[in-house]
Design a protein that fits this description.
Blueprint lengths: L8 H12 L2 E4 H11 L2 H12 L5 H12 L8 E4 L5 H14 L6 E5 L2 H10 L4 H25 L5 E5 L4 H15 L1
Parallel strand pairs: 1-2, 3-4
The chain binds adenosine monophosphate.
């Protein structure tokens, strides 16, 4: 599941993983948990995450590789917030190839920039985190959007309108996945 920061991809990924009985693998959640617990990984990534920059590819790939080997992921998984760079997509392809697991599809939750900014403002962010949100959007456009082009022709990429009610958006994603089956 891909989408710009503030697109609601975490919320939707959780719902879809639940209904499709997939392991929900959110790299953002994993990093936040490591930071909250103060693990070596958490301490290592804290500054980068708080700045809104991306954690190095090698580190992310090692984290996801290990996570994919856990029991619950063997029945199917939904990656949320990963891959975020072309290098991560390439690394993931190698990991999955090694495990003999195909990647089913990519769902892109698309939300126009002005709506993302509106949503961020509605949440009453301080100036400081508003700047971080804008920075994260820039990082997404520069480093993550090219991932979609990389997947084109390799796996189906479904673009779903991410503007509307939460339930309505979940239904849109479900129907795209049902049609793909
Ligand atoms: P998210 O909750 O997916 O928006 O992720 C929160 C933050 O965690 C991001 O702004 C990044 O700093 C970091 N992060 C999460 N996933 C990745 C990834 N795949 N590659 C690099 N950094 C990541």
């Amino acid at each position: 599941m891909m989408g710009p920061p503030g697109s609601g991809k975490g919320t939707q990924a959780e719902r879809i993983a639940g209904s499709q009985q997939l392991a929900h693998i959110s790299t953002g959640d994993m990093l936040r948990a490591a930071m909250a617990a103060g693990t070596p990984l958490g301490l290592q990534v804290k500054e980068v995450v708080e700045r809104g920059d991306l954690v190095p590819d090698e580190l992310m790939l090692a984290l996801v590789d290990e996570r994919l080997q856990q029991d619950d992921a063997t029945g199917g998984f939904l990656l949320d917030g990963f891959p975020r760079t072309v290098a991560q997509a390439e690394g993931l392809a190698k990991v999955l190839e090694g495990q003999g697991v195909p990647l089913g599809c990519v769902v892109l939750l698309s939300v126009p920039d002005d709506v993302l900014v509106e949503r961020a403002m509605a949440r009453g962010r301080t100036d400081d985190s508003e700047a971080t949100i804008r920075h994260r959007l820039g990082v997404y456009l520069e480093q993550t959007e090219p991932v979609l082009g990389w997947y084109e022709g390799k796996v189906p990429v479904y673009e779903v309108d991410g503007v509307g009610e939460i339930d309505e958006i979940t239904e849109r994603i479900q129907s795209v996945l049902d049609d793909a089956d």
